[in-house]
Design brief:
Blueprint (H helix, E strand, L loop, with lengths): L5 H11 L2 E9 L5 E10 L6 E11 L2 H8 L9 H25 L9 E12 L1 H4 L7 E5 L2 H8 L3 E3 L2 H6 L8 H9 L5 E7 L2 E7 L9 E7 L2 H11 L8 H5 L4 H8 L19 H10 L7 H23 L5 E6 L6 H10 L3 E3 L10 H15 L15 E3 L3
Parallel strand pairs: 1-4, 4-6, 7-10, 10-11
Antiparallel strand pairs: 1-2, 2-3, 4-5, 6-12, 7-8, 8-9
Helix pairs in contact: 3-5, 7-14, 8-12, 10-12, 12-13
The structure holds adenosine-5'-triphosphate and the ligand CC(=O)N[C@H]1[C@@H]2OC[C@@H](O2)[C@@H](O)[C@@H]1O[C@H](C)C(=O)O.
Amino acid sequence: MLPLNQNLQKLFDIAQKPVKTVIGLMSGTSLDGLDIALCSFSGHGLQTQYKLLQFITIPYPEGFKSEVQQVFAKKTVDLEKLTLLNAYIGSYHGELVLQALSKWDIAPDTVDFIASHGQTIYHAPKRLHKQANYPNATLQIGDGDHLAVKTGILTISDFRQKHIAAGGEGAPLALYGDVLLGHKPGEERILLNIGGIANLTYLPANNDTTNVLCTDVGPGNTLVDAACRRYFNKAFDEDSAIANSGKVNHDLLTALLSHPFFLEAAPKTTGPELFNLAFVENAQQQSQTKELPPEDLVSTLSAFTATSIINFIKANIQVDNLKIFVSGGGARNPFVITQLKLAFENIKDTSSLGINPDAKEAILFALLGNEALCGEPIVLGDNPKVLMGKFSFAV
Ligand SMILES: Nc1ncnc2c1ncn2[C@@H]1O[C@H](COP(=O)(O)OP(=O)(O)OP(=O)(O)O)[C@@H](O)[C@H]1O
Ligand SMILES: CC(=O)N[C@H]1[C@@H]2OC[C@@H](O2)[C@@H](O)[C@@H]1O[C@H](C)C(=O)O
C-alpha cells in the first residue's frame, strides 16, 4: 500500500486519538466578537464527552464591525469588499486564536484542530428569497484555509453547506450538539439560545429523537441592538437599562408579532435579512407609532423578543414539567429574562447543566468538528443525516 500523504496521515492520526484538543470558534449575528472555546473531546455521537478548558470572547474593534456591516445581511454589496473580507476574516480569526493560545500559555501545536463557523454574511432560506428555481442558501465567510495557514492548525469549517445540500436550511445546527450534550431521559427540556436570533431545541423526555425539534423562533437581540446603535449610539442595551426606562407600546408589539414568519411551521430559520430596522419601521407605520420615544421602542423590541419566544413555546411544546435552559448573550438581558420567568416556571441558564451559556455555540462547532473527523451520521427525525464541515490543511 502506498503511504498516505502527510496531510492524510495527520488526519488519520488525529482521528485515532482517544482525547482530542479542539478549538471551537463562533462569530455570531450580533457581530460582538469572536467566541473561542478550547475543549477536549473523547468519543463521538451519544458517547461524546467534552471538557471546556478555556473560553474567551475577543471583542471586535468598531472599525472591523463597520467593515463587516457594509456587507452583512445586505441584498446588494460591494463584491470586492466581500471578497477581501472572506480572506481577511479567515486570517484575522487565525490571529485571534494565536492571541488566545498565547494568553493561556498553550502551544499551537498541542491543538489537534480548529472548528470554525465563520461569519454569516447572508442567510437566504427559500422562505425568505422566494425564488422557485433556487435552493435554500447561506453564506459564511472567513475561509478555513487562511485560518489553517495562519495558525498551523488543521481547520474544519463551512459547516452549513452540507446541511443545505442534504435538504436542510443550513441552520439551526444546535440540534446536533443539544441532542448529544443536553438530553436527559425522563426530563422535558428546551435549550433556548438567545443570540442575535433566538433558536431552541426541544428534547422530549421519552428519548424519542424523531420528536426532537430545533428551530429559530424569531429575533433574539438583533433588533434591540440595532435600535441601540441607531438611537443611543450604543452596541447593546446593557443590563436592560434603556428598556427599563421606557414603556412597551402594545400597538407596535401587535404589529411586530403579526409577521407571517410567526405562523410558519417549524423548523424554520431566519436572520437580520428579515428582522432589521426596515421591518420595525414598517410595523411602526402599520401601527401609527412612528413618533414613539426611542426608549419605548427599545422596551417594545425587548418585549417582542420575549413574547415571540413565549408564544412559540406555548403554541408548539405543550408538555408538563418543562425545563428551559437559556444560553447566549440574551441570557444576560434582565428585561427579556424577567418576561420569560413570568411565563414559565422552570427556567435557568445552561450553567446549571454544566454548559457555559456564552461558550455554548463555540462548543457546538468544536463538537461538529469532532463528528466530522470521527463520528457517524445520526438519525434525528427528518433532519439531514450528515457529517458537516470541510477540511483545510496548514501545508
Ligand atoms: N449585560 C447585558 N445586558 C443586555 N444584553 C446583553 C448583555 N450582555 C450581552 N447582551 C446581548 O447579547 C448579545 C450578544 O449575544 P451572543 O454573543 O449570544 O450573540 P451571537 O453569538 O452573535 O448570536 P447568534 O447566536 O445569533 O449568532 C449582545 O449584542 C447583547 O444584545
Ligand atoms: C445562518 C446563521 O448563521 N444562523 C445562526 C443565527 O444565530 C442563531 C440562529 O441564527 C441560528 O439559526 C444560527 O446559529 C446557530 C449556532 C445554529 O446554527 O444553531
